[in-house]
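Q: My labmate handed me this sequence with no annotations at all. I'd like to see what the chain might look like in three dimensions before we decide whether it's worth expressing. Could you predict it?
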Amino acid sequence: MAPARDAYDDDARRLRLDTLIFLRWIAITGQTIALVTVYYFLGFDFPVGLCFVFIVASATLNFGLRYGTSRSFRLGDLEAAVLLGYDIIQLGFLLYLTGGLTNGFAMLFLAPVTISAVSLPRNLTLLLGISMLAVATFLTVEYMPLPWYENEKLSFPILYRASIWAALALSAAFIAIYAQRVSDESRLLATALAATELVLEREQHLSQLDGLAAAAAHELGTPLATITLIVKELQKSATGAAPELRDDLALLAQETARCREILSKLASLGAEDQGSMMNVQSIDTLIEEVIEPQREFGVKVEVSKRGSSSPPAIARNPGIIYGLGNLVENAIDFADSRVRVDAAWTKDLVVITIEDDGPGFSPAILDRLGDPYLRGRPTERRTKNEAESGLGLGLFIAKTLLERSGATVETTNVSPPRTGAVVRVVWPRSALEIIPAKAKSGSGQSNETAMIDTAKPVK
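A: Here is what I predict for the chain of 459 residues:
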């Protein structure tokens, strides 16, 4: 999720060109009003024509940007920095013609730096700040006199002009740091809210699926009971029939029993009774219960277990069993010949890794795995009708059920040149087992070299 989050942050930070054009029109309007007022109404003499040359240049640039791009266009960081740098230089020329830093409008140098602090990275904001100070330093010593009455001499000592320069520098630094902190916090809050909405949406999807599962279990229970009864009657009446028919009926009875078991799991996904010893199982029992229904599809399932402490005593959770079973079934669907289930534990973590030797996850959907209604790889192992009618909910349901139990689910591909998909499910041991690990003594291994490397998939 990190790449997706970074892309979201970058897109949220990028400055809309329409916003920059609008702000520049405000600046052009203010500059025009100031020049007209000072020259025509107050009667102060200064090179007003040359000043209007720079104002017209900004207006021309605005027209070119408006009609050359769409209203929703977002500037890249460097493009925005160049346009803000132009605004600093344009203002510098106007101030040079009208008194330099002794002109009260010199404070407008802070506007481009503030916009950059809110919208651009720190390095570009620092570059614009240095550019602004360079222009302000030049205007401290070189400028045309401030427009004033002809018979009065207006003089500003260098110390006064230096104090204005220092005020600009300190104000730019303070405003830039403050604006950047506020904008970063706003973006983090927006990202957190977006993530919260996604989690709530996932929970809403699963709640709806819980209701559908209960309805399906209720509706399918009666016809499945009828089918089971008919199969038993057919088995009784086929005692003298051909062996092939009896084998088919036995297989039909077995699959019918499996359907009933699946329905019972669907009806008990939310039930968790950890108070009974009947609901405590070892990790061996958990893995066997998960993979036992998947052993008849022509794919070899390898199981390995290792740990640096005593094995965890796991609270039996139908959601965990269903979620892991779904992941194993998915791996078998896409495996060429082998699926490996590896269980590892320490005193703090329990990790179950499911790896297949199939084609692996498509890079296009790898970052979105676990989203509802996202279909993955095509498969030939299940029937074509099943593959085509899938809703893309299997991994979403499995991931959400496992995360409800406190797990973190990671999906990756096997490192080249090998192929295959890897799903790692990591629990804090305290969230998975009933009896804390430190309450057990004397029954575990002490070999610390078997510690789990949680940074890499088990190969």
